[in-house]
Amino acid sequence: MELLALSIFGIDKPGIVFRITDLLARANVNIVDIEQNVLQGIFTMFIVGDATRAELSIDELKAELDRISREIGVHYHLSPFERIRIGGKNRYIVTVIGKDRVGIVRDVSEILFSYGANIERTSLTARDQLISISIVVDMGEADVQEVKNKLKEEIEKTGLDVVIQPYSVAKEEKKLIVFDMDSTLIDMEIIDELAKVAGVEGEVKKLTEKAMSGEIDFETALRERVKLLAGLPVEVMEKIYENIRLTEGAKELIESLKKAGYKVALVSGGFTYFTDKLKNELGLDYAFGNELEIENGKLTGKIKGKIINAEEKARIIEEIARKEGIKKENIVAIGDGANDRIMIEKAGLGIAFNAKQALKEVADGLISKENLIGLASILKLPAEFRKRV
To answer: Would you please indicate which residues are annotated as catalytic (active-site) residues?
Structure first.
């Protein structure tokens, strides 16, 4: 097979694609690959053509391209093309999200280059001050985990967020998204709010921090914290819910996810009193939490039934997936603490949201609450939905 590479660029106008492809068709050059874009009003097109049965020589094609390019006001380059071997690649998609600034692509490409990774394609979308840069990378022989850790570490220092996914997984259509509640779907820790009213805020916060950082197991910490809430009237929970703070953009994001066909679940180590109310308010498909024991209108300081810890969270998600007929690759899990570690690791895409270090290490990517809009870009929600968040 005799291949030719043809590149075209110039000011965009109607008819460029037709005039060029018409010439190739008349010359009996078969297009085997093509990519065309308009960027800031500039037209670009790259074509690989099979000239094995071409009825014009390269010189004759160039003469025709000279004439046509003058008529339509574009520039071109035509040359023989040697096909490179496509197989054996180790592709990932690196997505960087945040406020636009000078040097983002340079900083990311410098890290990738230092590990011998090859950038194959880069695209950018912008919305107001927020940008999303998607980079297709062949990691080659690089230690992927080491590259991922370096990208997360260095990009976070710049105030940006990053998500790194295997190419095959990134191309899978996502169908189920699972949120943690405290400090993820809502911008607060419910148990801390309860503790304030009970006058045990200091003791509860210490236990919360130890549990979220992985210093003590979640179940022990939860039982000890709930024990401190014994005697608290149920009415307190209603007042807290009335003043609940959703993470900025969360409501709009969930509405968009639902309209895009996602199943949306809330799986929390928090309390059913709040997860159930959020399920109704936000129209979630599923909501799970721990049930506080109540007697005579007051908290007893105990939890009813099985504790939703890290293992139970993962089991619940697997159960939802089986029920809905959804594969692991189609699941997105978003959480902020050590209790979310297993579900983050097992999901097709695991996002550490405004997270503690223990979770950042195992997540596919990091997103801060300031950049929630970036999640819509990563999940490839239609543009009319992304505008809402």
So the answer is: 180, 182
